[in-house]
Specification:
about 260 residues, alpha/beta, TIM Barrel, eight-stranded parallel sheet, 8 strands, about 40% helix, about 15% strand, metal ion binding, hydrolase activity, acting on ester bonds, metal-binding, TatD/YcfH-like
Length: about 260
């Protein structure tokens, strides 16, 4: 089914090397298919110039975020990276602080530094009145602990992979839930309870080039595959793709207005 309503990919890393050979084609393909906005998170200071280059080339289509990803946090770079974010926020307009959070899948040894970076960047967001985009991997408890201390917050809990109880907590904090390619995987647990979550709490994302939806799992992800996620949500909620598009787009506007 063709979707007449324009939709937003709220999370795509289009500056990454996986797109070096055909980046313009990928972006133009998305635009042609009514994916009219591409929200681009940074992961450290080296990615910011690349994102701003895309913003300049595709104004009002590519929108920059700024943030220090938890997997990029080290004791050595922490203060320099946070200072860089603070300076950039005074020099340029960003749509949100992201992606930020805690990741205990790979970097368990830097948990104190990750917590500090997360807390500090939430404060930056509050000062600038910006939403946040959260990365959480095997770290729901520490992430929830920090969110509780900073309630209320506004933004997206990116790439949600938890259970229904955790989803409800996220919503109660004031966040929307980012749903992407994982919803199409055969062994995902989210499909079993997602229908219990009101669509007003959901936004669409690809996290491209990662987490391609079925049947492209294992291959490079890209914004055009947002339509596969849209179709899956239509099946889960038993409403039209157009209605899914309308509702989730309204949610995006609520966050970023």
């Amino acid at each position: 089914m063709f979707i007449y309503m324009k939709i937003t990919d709220t999370h795509t890393h289009l500056y990454m090397k996986q797109f070096d050979k055909d980046r313009d084609f990928v972006i133009k393909t998305a635009i042609h298919n009514k994916i009219h906005k591409l929200y681009i998170p940074s992961i450290d200071s080296t990615t910011i110039p690349k994102i701003l280059k895309l913003e300049k080339k595709y104004p009002n289509i590519c929108f920059p975020m700024i943030g220090l990803h938890p997997s990029k946090v080290t004791p050595e770079n922490l203060e320099n990276e946070l200072n860089s974010i603070k300076k950039w926020l005074d020099q340029h307009t960003f749509i949100s602080i992201g992606e930020i959070g805690i990741d205990l899948h790979l970097e368990k040894k830097f948990i104190l530094e990750q917590r500090y970076a997360f807390q500090t960047q939430i404060q930056y967001a509050k000062i600038k009145k910006l939403p946040i985009v959260i990365h959480c991997r095997k770290a729901f408890d520490p992430v929830f602990d920090i969110l509780k201390k900073n309630y209320p917050v506004k933004g997206i809990f990116h790439c949600f992979s938890g259970n229904l109880e955790q989803a409800k907590k996220i919503i109660n904090f004031g966040l929307k839930i980012g749903i992407g390619g994982m919803i199409t995987f055969k062994n995902n647990n989210i499909s079993s309870f997602l229908h219990k979550i009101n669509l007003k709490n959901i936004v669409l994302e690809t996290d491209s080039p990662f987490l391609s939806p079925y049947p492209f799992k294992g291959k490079r992800n890209e914004p055009i595959y947002l339509k596969i996620i849209l179709k899956k949500l239509s099946n889960i909620y038993s409403i039209s793709e157009r209605n899914i598009a309308n509702i989730t787009e309204t949610n995006v506007k609520e966050i970023f207005s």
